[in-house]
């Protein structure tokens, strides 16, 4: 495992140049690292040309409690979705681990499909594009793929750049596609060597943004960036971030870069030093007495984002710290119902909101903002071959603050 914080890495341009020298030419896969598992066959989507057929392998969940002693992920061959002409295929360089992956593999969500491939913070290089590509991608481009893999393209949400709210969304894994040749086919994530899916959800990585830190931005990053953008956070605004963790540590950086005064809120003092390094102006350790901890913050914040996910959340203690017309926004997955006290809520015209990921257009703006303002998730890298070790460590709460898996044989760098 390699631990990285604010350290320079290979940018998209560096790795693109390297791969062009010995990797992808005119849509043909000719990299040396692929020849060990590839055979030359006729491909019906290659206009009659012979190309390298890839053996698709990934780390498969053999049961729906893969982190509970009933079987670790197994590296095996599996089937990708049927090819549609708006698809793109990428070789996976990096894939972050998100809490949703761990919850699914621990059996905390609905039962998993057979041969589930988790992973939804994917960074890769395009090796094949369809004839109806949606976002001008070409072979050799570096792209990121997050939680959402597709949408219906027909509903009001899809037509108004709110694709993340489409009721027929396809998500990264344990889901199915709803259109084209892939209708009813299961989705597959990025704990693998390759990913295939609709090009609209493969977002170009801006040149100059480090590829290894870009993975966590594809889910955790956009999840906390979206409400900051939606609620127009900027100079003079006061933002509280509840939870200095995988999402919260990126939220501190985004909010600070937008010009806000940022207060990190956590249960103990253990993450104060990190929060200050990340850009927080203030730090509140709540302990068990939130009323006392928030004594000087009455009607203080324009926006408070909850990036934590405790079993229960005492929302009543947070409403008094909101300004009149202030907003409390949940992005953390609180498993139990949250009680909302009505009188303090209406007494300050306060609002309770929720937010999840972001549309492709928001994703693009978030990545560009991260590049322009040097937003860098703090990551620790594992070889993809050590995925089981990384997942167990993640479940124990050990990341500071995101784990990134690396396919070194595909061009990723530890």
Automatic annotation (TrEMBL):
It comes from the Eukaryota. InterPro entries: ADH-like_C, ADH-like_N, ADH_Zn_CS, CAD-like, ER, GroES-like_sf, NAD(P)-bd_dom_sf. Residues 1-24 are annotated as: Disordered. Residues 69-405 form the Enoyl reductase (ER) domain. GO terms for molecular function: oxidoreductase activity, acting on the CH-OH group of donors, NAD or NADP as acceptor; zinc ion binding. Residues 1-19 have a biased composition (Basic and acidic residues). Its cofactor is Zn(2+). Keywords: Metal-binding, Oxidoreductase, Zinc. The keyword Oxidoreductase applies. Belongs to the zinc-containing alcohol dehydrogenase family. This is Enoyl reductase (ER) domain-containing protein.
């Amino acid at each position: 495992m390699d631990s990285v914080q604010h350290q320079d890495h290979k940018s998209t341009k560096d790795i693109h140049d390297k791969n062009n020298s010995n990797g992808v030419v005119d849509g043909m896969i000719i990299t040396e690292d692929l020849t060990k598992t590839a055979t030359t066959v006729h491909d019906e989507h290659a206009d009659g040309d012979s190309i390298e057929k890839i053996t698709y392998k990934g780390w498969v969940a053999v049961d729906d409690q893969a982190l509970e002693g009933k079987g670790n992920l197994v590296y095996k061959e599996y089937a990708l979705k049927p090819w549609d002409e708006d698809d793109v295929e990428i070789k996976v360089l990096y894939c972050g681990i998100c809490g949703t992956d761990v919850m699914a593999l621990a059996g905390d969500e609905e039962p998993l499909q057979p041969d589930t491939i988790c992973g939804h913070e994917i960074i890769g290089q395009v090796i094949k594009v369809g004839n109806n590509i949606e976002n001008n991608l070409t072979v050799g481009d570096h792209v990121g793929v997050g939680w959402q893999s597709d949408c219906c393209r027909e509903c009001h949400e899809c037509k108004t750049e709110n694709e993340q709210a489409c009721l027929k969304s396809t998500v990264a894994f344990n889901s199915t596609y709803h259109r084209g040749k892939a209708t009813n086919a299961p989705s597959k994530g990025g704990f693998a060597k390759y990913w295939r899916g609709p090009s609209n959800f493969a977002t170009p990585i801006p040149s100059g943004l480090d590829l290894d830190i870009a993975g966590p931005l594809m889910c955790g990053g956009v999840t906390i960036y979206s409400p900051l953008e939606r609620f127009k956070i900027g100079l003079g605004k006061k933002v509280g971030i509840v939870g200095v963790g995988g999402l919260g540590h990126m939220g501190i950086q985004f909010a600070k870069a937008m010009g806000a005064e940022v207060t990190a809120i956590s249960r103990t003092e253990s993450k104060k030093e990190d929060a200050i390094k990340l850009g927080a102006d203030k730090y509140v350790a709540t302990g068990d007495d939130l009323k006392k901890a928030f004594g000087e913050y009455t009607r203080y914040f324009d926006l408070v984002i909850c990036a934590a996910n405790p079993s229960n959340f005492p929302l009543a203690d947070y409403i008094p710290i909101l300004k009149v017309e202030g907003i409390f926004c949940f992005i953390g997955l609180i498993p139990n119902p949250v009680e909302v006290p009505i009188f303090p809520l209406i007494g300050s015209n306060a609002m309770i909101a929720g937010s999840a990921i972001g549309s492709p257009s928001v994703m693009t703006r978030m990545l560009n903002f991260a590049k322009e303002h040097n937003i860098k998730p703090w990551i620790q890298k594992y070889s993809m071959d050590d995925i089981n070790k990384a997942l167990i460590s993640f479940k124990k709460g050990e990341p500071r603050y995101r784990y990134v898996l690396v396919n070194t044989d595909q061009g990723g760098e530890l």
